[in-house]
Amino acid sequence: MVNIPLPLRPVPSGGEVAPEDAEARLDLVFAALSDPIRRQILERLDGQALLVSELAEPFDISLQGVSRHIQVLVRAGLIQQERSGRISRCSLDVGPLMDAAVWLNRYTKYWQAQFDLLAATLAQIDEQRATEPAAPAVTAAAKKRQPRPPRRK
User: Fold this and answer.
1) Using one digit for the tens of pLDDT, what is the confidence trace for 4-26?
2) Cβ of 98: how many Cβ atoms within 10 Å?
3) 31 vs 116, which has greater pLDDT?
């Protein structure tokens, strides 16, 4: 796996944020979500806090590799880490995910327009089929009586 360093801008925590700060936060969230291992880490943290070693168990990468993924998630604000000596416990912070969902939700009107167009087209096709006369059914006996085209040599 190639680790691409992200340009880090200070991201304020909580409260109102300036538009450029909100944009920086979204950049970090979407960059963090772009990796399947990081998405799996977030899934594992759903509803529970886990130690880094517990998070690393299902992955076929080193503990240090998992720690790097966790740090990307921490910088994006998706994970909070509590340290007690050498033990680090991670928990999910859904706030940045909500911000990303709100941003994505702005584009649902475009998808909804496509679904409405599809529904109208399907209704039109159904209406056309209902008004067209049914094609006569061809029985097996009628198929046998039809002459076959000559074979070419």
Assistant:
1) 344 444 444 444 556 678 889 99
2) 10
3) 31
Helix, strand and coil content of the chain, in percent to the nearest 5, comes to: 55, 10, 35
CATH of 21-101, picked from 3.10.180.10, 1.10.3720.10, 1.10.240.10, 1.10.10.10, is 1.10.10.10
Pairwise CA distance, residues 130 & 74, whole Å: 58
d(CA 107, CA 109): 5
CB 53 within 8 A of CB 46: no
DSSP string, 18-61: -HHHHHHHHHHHHHHHTSHHHHHHHHHTTTS-EEHHHHHTT-SS
